[in-house]
Please model this.
Amino acid sequence: MKILIAGGGTGGHIYPALAIADAVRELEPQSEILFVGAKGRMEMEKVPKAGYQIVGLTIAGIQRRFTWKNLLIPFQLGASLIQSFRILRTFKPDVAIGVGGYASGPALRVASWMGIPVVLQEQNSYAGMTNRLLARSAALICVAWPGMERYFPGANIVLTGNPLRAQFARPNSGTGCPTSTGNGI
Model:
């Protein structure tokens, strides 16, 4: 199985993505996993250190205040959509997983255009802008908190909790399952 995992920008996106990749590798050791992130961001260092390949897009986030950097966003978005198309055409994933952050936007949008199933993972109780924009094209939306229907189509939501890397996982009471609780604790 080939899996593309896109997103990043902060540890809140990167570490759940690594936990997902580690879980996939444990279940299917022969799987191929490729990360897509933003050039110059934290994921470009953390993902290779964890033993995974990553490709960087030229995308950057929208500044919340007015700045000249926002004028570059349309050009960066266009370039990132083209880069994403090339990455997806070459890698040919069976599924594309988005963990939030602006790098997941172009990669998952192109994946949906190409007919590749899209899965979103939302770690927060307040859904991020990128995941909200991608929700309509997602086959599945994994959330950590109840009540996320206010952001996403209810039929596609699955309450999974937050993915935890193995070194931080602890068994839930009574289940023995090494995952987090629904609230990420």
The chain has one domain: 2-159. The CA atoms of residues 144 and 161 lie 4 Å apart.
